[in-house]
Specification:
Butyryl-Coa Dehydrogenase, subunit A, domain 1, four-stranded antiparallel β-sheet, Butyryl-CoA Dehydrogenase, subunit A, domain 3, Butyryl-CoA Dehydrogenase, subunit A, domain 2, 3 domains, 51% helix, alpha+beta, binds flavin-adenine dinucleotide
């Protein structure tokens, strides 16, 4: 394996960095203000202009893998996603936000021709947004076989009833399609064949976004997560993707790259925290010495550099594995980096907060918000424990197989 980025990727990175410097970083404090305003669930006032500029600059839909109509491999996308991930809302500027990327990938792979026209195309153009509704308030949803939202056949239609939560983007006024996982065959003997995935227009009668769910007090509008009620929501049978009972097959396909993209962003956030840690340590003096000369600070900067570089290499390795072998082959590497990137980012951002003193906890340095994102990633898309269990089991399997030889 060779992780030397190609001239094309290096050139894209340079262009992306310049774009971030010119258009994105200057708006960071305005983003926090928008999040506190009455209009916070409306699109960011500058977003459409920046999206147009990103499109013109050829920095659009870079997430889309070569294997599904894009121009980059996952490995090539990694350094670009890291750069975008440095600013929480920047992903949308380049049409690379979750959950839209995963939803687009899924519709492109499994949708009917009419789904491509109605949903995939406008999503790729950035003219609408989407949400993914799997988690439920009344079920331990890290085991997705627990999902209870009912999907029942009624003539030519399906009718959905259930409560969903933590649906990122569902409260955005531009969210037009909900990708919903529900139980279509509760009696199927195989628990992994009881669920289906459907595409539900968000303005269907019976869909109600009931409340936003903040993380450490941050609602993250308009992209933040919400609770959603589905009451007798009726969709035509064509809305069900791939066939009844194939929800897990589809969800698995979606989760691998989605998890990896979060890890790329986490590396970006952690890298930025190191920069902030260094800047503050050099600028602040206590008891006659700059903080940068305290051994504890040097230790933390050094440990952060070691951990972030290690995480970055593991991201690249997992991305390469995904490119060459697909989701199943890369499942151990993705699980490993999912645990490592989130925990590394939490630790590094926490140290950056510490060196900033009280202001580290405010919005002035965006560290508190970045910590919330990193902490979320230890739970969302599968909590740490589940990924560690999986890694442990795969290790034991490999050991057992090697002993049989
Ligand atoms: C900001 C944010 C955005 C999100 N976006 C979405 C979204 O867009 N769509 C969506 O569907 N969901 C989304 N989620 C939900 C997220 O994926 C779930 O919360 C997550 O899968 C865990 O499910 P749960 O909360 O029901 O935890 P539970 O299943 O109740 O688990 C609780 C805890 O139990 C422990 N645990 C669970 N299983 C095991 C085990 N086998 N061994 C040991 N310990 C275990 C873990 O510590 C876990 O944290 C989001 C969450 C957040 C915070």
């Amino acid at each position: 394996m060779n992780f030397q980025h190609s001239p094309m990727v290096l050139e894209l990175c340079e262009r992306l960095r310049a774009f971030m410097t010119e258009h994105v970083y200057p708006l960071e404090s305005a983003w926090f203000e928008h999040g506190r305003s009455e209009a916070r669930w409306e699109p960011l006032p500058w977003m459409e202009d920046l999206k147009r500029k990103a499109r013109e600059a050829g920095l659009w839909n870079l997430w889309r893998p070569k294997s599904n109509g894009g121009i980059l491999t996952n490995l090539e996308y990694a350094p670009l996603c890291e750069i975008m991930g440095r600013v929480h809302w920047a992903m949308e500027v380049f049409n690379c936000s979750s959950p839209d990327t995963g939803n687009m990938d899924l519709i492109l792979k499994f949708g009917l021709p009419e789904h491509q026209t109605r949903w995939a195309l406008p999503l790729l153009q950035g003219s609408i947004r989407s949400a993914f509704l799997m988690t439920e308030p009344d079920q331990a949803s890290s085991d997705a076989t627990n999902i209870q939202c009912r999907v029942e056949r009624d003539g030519d239609d399906y009718v959905l009833n259930g409560r969903k939560c933590w649906a990122a983007g569902a409260g955005d006024s531009r969210c037009k399609v909900l990708v919903v996982m529900g139980k279509s065959d509760p009696d199927h003997p195989d628990r992994h064949k009881q669920h289906s995935i459907l595409l539900v227009p968000s303005d269907s009668p019976g869909v109600r976004v009931t409340r936003p769910l903040p993380v450490f007090g941050y609602e993250d509008p308009p992209q933040g997560a919400s609770e959603v009620e589905l009451t007798n929501v009726r969709v035509p049978q064509e809305a069900l993707l791939l066939g009844p009972g194939r929800g897990f097959e589809i969800a698995q396909n979606r989760l691998g790259p989605g998890r990896l993209h979060h890890c790329m962003r986490l590396v970006g956030k952690a890298e930025r925290a190191i920069e902030a840690m260094c800047d503050r340590a050099m600028a602040r003096t206590t008891f006659g010495k700059p903080l940068s000369q305290r051994t504890v600070t040097l230790e933390r900067i050094a440990e952060s550099r070691i951990a972030v570089d290690a995480a970055r290499w593991m991201v690249l390795h997992a991305a390469w594995k995904l490119d060459v072998g697909g989701n199943k082959e890369a499942r151990k590497e993705i699980a490993m980096i999912k645990v490592m990137a989130a925990n590394t980012a939490c630790k590094v951002i926490d140290w950056a907060i510490q060196v900033h003193g009280s202001y580290g906890l405010s919005n002035d340095f965006a560290l508190a918000h970045a910590y919330g994102y990193a902490r979320t990633q230890r739970i969302a898309d599968g909590p740490d424990e589940i990924h560690r269990n999986q890694i442990g089991k795969l290790e034991l399997d490999a050991r057992a197989k090697s002993q049989q030889k």
